[in-house]
Amino acid sequence: RMARLVKLQNEIERIKEKYFTRNRFAEENRQRENEAAIKIQSWFRGWQVRAYLSHLHWKATIIQKIWRGFRARARFRQTVKIQRRWRGYYVRKYVHNYYARRRYMEGLIRKNEEIRRDLVDFSEFQRREREQIAMDREEQKKTVQAQRMHFLLSTKQCPGVFNSPFKPEPDEMELRLRRTKPQPPTASPRERDSRLGNRIPSTHSSASIARAHGAQPLPPIPIKKPQGPFREAAEVWAQRHRSLEPSLRVQTSITDLEEAQDQLRLEEWRNRTVDTLFQPFSKAHQNRRYERMIHTSSSFQPVPYGNKHFREERPDNLLGKKPFNRVFTTCQVFDKFGRLFSNAGKIV
Amino acid sequence: LYIKINTYCWIIHLCLLVFEQYQKARTQFVQTVAELATRPQNIETLQNAGVMSLLRPLLLDIVPTIQQTSALALGRLANYNDDLAEAVVKGDILPQLVYSLAEQNRFYKKAAAFVLRAVAKHSPTLAQAVVDCGGLDALVISLEEFDPGVKEAAAWALGYIARHNGHLSQAVVDAGAVPLLVLCIQEPEVALKRIAASALSDIAKHSPELAQTVVDAGAIAHLSQMILNPDAKLKRQVFSALSQISKHSVDLAEMVVEAEIFPSILVCLRDPDEYVRKNVTTLMREITKHTPELSQLVVNTGGVAAVIDYLGECQGGVRLPGIMMLGYVAAHSENLAMAVIVSKGVPQLAICLSEESEDHIKAATVWAFGQIGRHTPEHARAVAAAHVLPKLLALYMDPDSSEDLQIKAKKALKSILQKCTHLPALEPLLYEAPSNILKHVVYQFSKVLPHDSKARRLFVTSGGLKKVQEIKADVGSALQEYINSINNCYPEEIVRYYSPGYSETLLERIDKYQPV
After folding, report:
1. Hey, is A309 helix, strand or coil?
2. In B, which residues are within 8 Å of A123 by CB distance?
3. Do A116 and B309 touch (CB under 8 A)?
4. For chain A, where are the E strands, in sequence order?
5. Nearest CA in chain A to B307
6. Vertex B283, ends B280 and B285: CA angle to 5°?
């Protein structure tokens, strides 16, 4: 124990030294180490807080997520409700309207019934029309037949073909014959034409005979005059039988001109005895000689007039001598005109 | 001198006598031949005697009556058969006739047009021969004549030429005949109207362009005015012309409808003449086949009811256009199909199906049923309620029916069955149907039975479940699936009870059972 104590006493100085040096070092490093510790601590605390914050954020996000999803889905359910109701309404009203279709089908059934009835009525009507027309035609035919065979009518003496004495009643044809008027046999074409052209009917024949003898018609027996603005019978008679007074234009026949020409021709033929015509001064033309035109000639040669000789030229009178020279060379009087006097007047 | 004059006159008289006798002989010959040619049995003899070569020079005779009568005789001969018509063409008679069509008087023109018509009617080659020798221009010129008889003969000839094919019709149109024909329709003579209407119908039937040309000339208005004319033959031609025009396209059909033919057309469905009625239904068919709007129009005016009544009254082949019209109307939409059902169309069609014996009419009826029943279960129920499905099945299975009929029956059955939920009508089909039809029937049962308890009960009591058990199906096929789904609707004991051979298994259990 004593040794340890002496060691320790020796050590005291070193320990004090060491203590002081250590203190010194610690003092020197204290700032630095303090700051380092602070840094580490601050970093750590910051990290802790951040971790906690991010944890909080995450939780908050989860809550918000759930809440917002809920809200959106609720909204979605609401809009789906609206859309559902709208689509149902639209389809039921416009795309496939059951009640409208039912009404249409009922209306169609009624319309069909109506059309069927109308068609039946119309066909009945047409059938009756056709039958009526056929019956009318039959009637017409039978009437015509009865009219033409009227001679088969039964008389008191002799019963006709259709009125058999053994039958209780006469035949339908017999009754028809009794009803209809007989048609007289159709006349031949000549008589028909004359009847058409017959102006005065035969009932007035007595008056015409009287007039032919030059007498006036007797005045009518004065019976009760009819009321009204009627003219006298004599006046009417005169007007009715007034003769035709055609104008000159109507009177002349259409071939009047030709007839007149024929008449003239006949007269000519009758009266003319001399055939030659009288033509005073008719020989005057015979003295003239025909002068052909300059530009026309049937011989295709140049005409000598104007080319070979002039008027008044008589080559025969020359008697072989040469004709007078008419064309000369030019007179050179004016050749030196202008050049003689001065250079200024030089003619180029 | 007097004696000389006398003998001279006598010689002249002798000469002229010969000519007179010859003329009389010619006239008599030609008139007798023309008269004999009216009867068919004489024509063979005449042909053998070489009448063509004798008639040919008489066409160029001086006397006009002989010319006309010989042309008439030639026309009658050529009318009879096509050998004689070919002989007319080969004998180079046509150019002479065409030339004289422009020159001569109206009787000759009529006779010449008659010959051209008689030649052109037999075949397209002969008609082409008539066209090649310039007949078209001459005929069109004679269409401008005053005399209605000449116009009629010319229009008839043009109609016969245009009848054969599109090229000839185009040639007739190019010659400018259409406006003149439309003018002819407006004439007061009924015969001329008839012929002009039939000529227009023959021109318009080949292609849409030709129909458009006819429409552009303003034919529709005049044709529609003649709908209520009392003459039956005229009405035939008018309706035929309108249907040929409207069959090509929607626009043409709409133009025909715009001429306000409905509802006056429905009146003509009660006409006493059979062909008028047939042509009216043909026109209605051509109109309704294009679009739903046009069908709707026809339905709204009550056309469907009128056609159904018409089907009830007539017999035979004339029913075909009416049946097709109902099919077209029902094909467009389910409203229109319901309209057909509501107008009592289904029972009438069922009567048609049972009465008619011709295969093509049956095929049309079957197709019409398919169009009516394929839209919704209501429609299928209406069709099935008329006991139509067994008949369809019978037609499909019958070896005598034609291939077309079988195909149509199968299609119709399939399309109706896919919508049919009316089980009492489906049950008879379970027993007789072949496997491809059976599949659909069982499918329908498997759709309905899981939801309807009354139907399930009925199904069991009527023996349907028993039948279903007897069906042999390949494992894994659709049919097996459907059978399984039906079986799942019932408790096991019942299924086992109705399965085939159950009595044997029960008896086997007796054998195995040891009494206690």
Report:
1. strand
2. 270
3. yes
4. none
5. A116
6. 110
- Interface check for A104 against chain B (CB to CB < 8 A): the answer is yes
Give residues 179 to 218 of A whose Cβ lies within 8 Å of B.
none
**Residues of A with Cβ-Cβ distance to B270 under 8 angstroms:** 119-120, 122-123, 126
DSSP secondary-structure letter at B227?
Answer: G
Separation CA B259–CA B267 (nearest Å): 16
CB contact under 8 A, A105 and B269: no
Q: How crowded is residue B83: how many other Cβ atoms within 10 Å of its Cβ?
A: 11
- Tell me the residue type at B173: V
- Residues in A closer than 8 angstroms to B306, CB to CB, are 115-116, 119
How far, in Å, CA of B490 to CA of B238, rounded?
65
Torsion, Cα of B438, B444, B447, B452 (10° steps) = -120
Contact B302, B263 (CB under 8 A): yes
Contact B74, B112 (CB under 8 A): no
Interface predicted TM-score (ipTM) of this complex, two decimals: 0.79
pTM: predicted TM-score of the whole model, two decimal places: 0.69
CA distances from A341 to A52, A332, A334, A344, B158 (A): 142, 17, 13, 8, 105
**Which residues of B touch chain A, with CB atoms under 8 Å apart?**
263, 266-267, 269-270, 272, 299-302, 304-306, 309, 335, 338-339, 342-343
CA B270/CA A248 separation, integer angstroms: 71
CB atoms A101 and B263 under 8 Å: no
Closest listed residue to residue B225, CA positions, set B184, B276, B261, B182: B261
Question: Per this entry, what is the length of chain A?
Answer: 348
Q: How far apart are CA B398 and CA B406, in angstroms?
A: 8
* C-alpha–C-alpha distance, residues B267 and B500, integer Å: 62
Instruction: Give dist(CA B268, CA B208) in Å, integer.
Output: 27
Residues 6+ apart with CB under 8 A from B337: B329, B330, B331, B371, B372, B375, B379
Instruction: Pull the structure tokens for residue B234.
Output: 């005229």
Domain B18-175, CATH: 1.25.10.10
Per-residue pLDDT of chain B in tens (516 residues, 90 and over written 9) = 677 778 888 888 888 899 999 999 999 999 999 999 998 888 888 888 888 888 888 988 888 889 899 999 999 999 988 888 998 888 888 888 888 887 778 889 999 999 999 999 999 999 999 999 999 999 999 999 889 999 999 999 999 999 999 999 999 999 999 999 999 999 999 999 999 999 999 999 999 999 999 999 999 999 999 998 989 999 999 999 999 999 999 999 999 999 999 888 999 998 889 999 999 999 999 999 999 999 999 999 999 999 999 999 998 889 999 999 999 999 999 999 999 999 999 999 999 999 998 999 999 999 999 999 999 999 999 999 999 999 999 999 988 889 999 999 999 999 999 999 888 888 888 888 888 888 889 899 888 888 888 888 888 888 888 888 888 877 778 888 888 888 888 888 888 888 888 888 888 888 888 887
Min Cα separation B343/chain A (Å):
6
Subunit contact A109:B343, Cβ cutoff 8 A? yes
DSSP 3-state of A305: strand
Whether the CB-CB separation of B479 and B435 falls below 8 Å is answered with yes
CA B82 to CA B65: how far, in whole Å?
27
- Cβ–Cβ below 8 Å for A119 and B299: no
Domain ranges within chain B, ordered by starting residue? 18-175, 449-516
Query: Is A119's CB within 8 Å of B309's CB?
Result: yes
Structure tokens at A89: 């309404």
Q: Which of A153, A144, A142, A141 is nearest to A177 (CA)?
A: A153
Residue A247 CA to residue B365 CA, distance in Å, equals 87
Residue type, A143: T
